[in-house]
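Students often ask why we bother encoding 3D structure as a string. The short answer is that it lets us treat folding as translation between two languages. Here is a chain of 163 residues written in the first language.
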Amino acid sequence: MQQMDDLQRLTASQGVLLYRLVDLGYLTRAQVDELITRLVRARLIKAQEYLAFAGQLDASATLNLPHIVSRCYYAMYHAARAVVLHVRRADLDDHERLPATLVQILGRPYGDLLGRWREARNQVDYSPYPPVDLRQQALAAVSDAELLLTACREGLRNRGVSL
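And here it is in the second language, the structure alphabet:
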């Protein structure tokens, strides 16, 4: 598993190198595609686990609300990274650039959704002043995370990834 961990942040130049090794006959395209698919699946599993954890938190407890928003954002973040990795053949872990890249792949509504939840997560994680509507935000975060994860899974299935 350590070997996969070393590859989880596959850079664009590393991706190019992998396909160059295909051109030179050291690897097959199927081997590279399988490696990327394994990384994509692992990232998507992480997204699903974050969403499941957020769903286990008691939303009636005020202390849990920021954690629900945060875990939902990270569920969306990892699902978006999975899609970007599959399409671009390189990982993108930049929180600010990821929404714009997602817009190019899944469309503006999904990229904008990820961007809005990044801002909300920043507020609940770093500000000492929670938003007035934090309870509604937490409930909306779960709903939006489910929506984005569904779109990411569907986008991956449409690209031939079996999940």
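Translate back mentally: Helices lie at 2-7, 12-23, 29-56, 65-88, 98-106, 108-126, 134-158. Keep this in mind for the problem set.
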